[in-house]
């Protein structure tokens, strides 16, 4: 979109990124505080196993996923391939942590004899997890695995970016639904009496929404997009030449 | 639909818009079906007053708000001012319907002696309503009220678009939270037994998320953006010259 050569980072970008990280870390800390202060903490081999679920999901599918999306804005002038690998790796970490969170809740349900997958939260959660995994696989195949034709990469890139943002937002929405579910199950009528746990959890919900908003803002601001189209094309051509052995001229 | 000199609409856009409208209408119909079949229908002067709240919010702050965002994609070749007025009017309709929904729930709470504004859904809801009203006022002042300098308009436009999308997404998220709240309050343990109402409401939740995703997709696809920058600039200059009577260069 932009023609400029690799420029220095926009002046305001670092402040916005720092703010998003502050929000993200506060989010994780407040989740920990909620689980520690009001839900008895975390332990795998007990009733507290459930509590691993919200913590893992907030760390993996909200904080780390959000940061993985920001990699291309933060490392604007690094080699494209390094940035790609970091983007892919952060998503792997997020996926593994989310998997632990998923095992925690299914294992807890099994031990307690609770029904699985009846709620809107669980439907959205499974949808997020499947979409996230598929998006990672397709992204890896197109962008990291050396072999996808350049023309295909160019056509898929906007879809990858849109679905990346959409899956992230659905993750935030699913976390909000889960938080609400936990509050209504555990607090019941006390929720409407402005119990401290309810107020803290509401603040946590607002932090989730704000983190989602901050990541989306940094991601979508047109003048903050990664500038190096030229480098990117050259690199893709390199891959293409290396792996296909044909001339770089043929789209 | 076309009347201008600008480029013809992208071939796939009408299909995506039609799909989004089908989703939106299904969403409203399923909300009506849920309230009619399982919640006793709607009446203002009874306990059924509450049910006006979800219906108004889904029609106003989800369906109409989403359609107001799509106006610039659907009416690509109409005069910019006509499109602007339609965009502003749809938002007014949405706001008025949402206000009725807001009055319904506060009035119902007052009659029943229920506490107000304790839940995450209500916090998000009030936030959405205030942001939506402020965004409308600022948008009107900058873009419809003839007087804002062209340079200010240009600088504010990206913020207006980002916050418009963000407020819409927060509206969808808030609706999901409200749906979840209604289900857990009303169904209780029956929710986990896959009662028909629970399954229908989960489907409604997925429809809400899908409508949000469809609107976001149409809105963000780069090659579907409204093309007529030249006309837009000329029109803004016209307004400026007409209303301020000064040269288009100042400020």
TrEMBL record, chains A, B:
**Listed transmembrane segments:** 12-37, 57-75, 87-106, 126-148, 160-179, 199-219
| Domain (Cytochrome b561) ranges | 19-220
Cellular component (GO) terms are: chromaffin granule membrane; lysosomal membrane
Q: Which SMART domains match?
A: B561
Q: Which Pfam families match?
A: Cytochrom_B561
Give yes or no: UniProt keyword Heme.
yes
The annotated topology with respect to the bilayer is: Multi-pass membrane protein
Cofactor requirement: heme b
Task: Give the location in the cell.
Answer: Cytoplasmic vesicle, Secretory vesicle, Chromaffin granule membrane
**MF terms in GO:** metal ion binding; oxidoreductase activity
Q: Which reaction does it catalyse?
A: monodehydro-L-ascorbate radical(out) + L-ascorbate(in) = monodehydro-L-ascorbate radical(in) + L-ascorbate(out)
Q: Chief location of this protein?
A: membrane
Q: Which UniProt keywords apply?
A: Cytoplasmic vesicle, Electron transport, Heme, Iron, Membrane, Metal-binding, Translocase, Transmembrane, Transmembrane helix, Transport
The job of this chain, per UniProt, is described as: Transmembrane reductase that uses ascorbate as an electron donor in the cytoplasm and transfers electrons across membranes to reduce monodehydro-L-ascorbate radical in the lumen of secretory vesicles. It is therefore involved the regeneration and homeostasis within secretory vesicles of ascorbate which in turn provides reducing equivalents needed to support the activity of intravesicular enzymes.
Protein name, per record? Transmembrane ascorbate-dependent reductase CYB561
Q: Could you tell me which species this protein originates from?
A: Piliocolobus tephrosceles (Ugandan red Colobus)
């Amino acid at each position: 979109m932009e023609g400029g050569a690799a420029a220095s980072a926009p002046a305001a970008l670092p402040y916005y990124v720092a703010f998003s990280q502050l929000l993200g870390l506060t989010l994780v800390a407040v989740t920990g505080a909620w689980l520690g202060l009001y839900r008895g903490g975390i332990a795998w081999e007990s009733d507290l196993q459930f509590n691993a679920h919200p913590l893992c999901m907030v760390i993996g599918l909200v904080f780390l996923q959000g940061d993985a999306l920001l990699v291309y804005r933060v490392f604007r002038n690094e080699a494209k391939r390094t940035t790609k690998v970091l983007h892919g790796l952060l998503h792997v970490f997020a996926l593994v942590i989310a998997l632990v969170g998923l095992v925690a809740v299914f294992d807890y349900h099994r031990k307690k004899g609770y029904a699985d997958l009846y709620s809107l939260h669980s439907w959205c959660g499974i949808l997020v997890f499947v979409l996230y995994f598929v998006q990672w696989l397709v992204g890896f195949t197109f962008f990291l695995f050396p072999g996808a034709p350049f023309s295909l990469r160019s056509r898929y890139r906007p879809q990858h970016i849109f679905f990346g943002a959409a899956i992230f937002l659905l993750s935030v929405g699913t976390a909000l639904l889960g938080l609400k579910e936990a509050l209504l199950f555990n607090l019941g009528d006390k929720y409407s009496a402005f119990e401290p746990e309810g107020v803290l959890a509401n603040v946590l919900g607002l932090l989730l929404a704000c983190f989602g908003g901050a990541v989306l803002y940094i991601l979508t601001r047109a003048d903050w997009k990664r500038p190096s189209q030229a480098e990117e094309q050259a690199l893709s051509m390199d891959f293409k030449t290396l792996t296909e052995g044909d001339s770089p001229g043929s789209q």
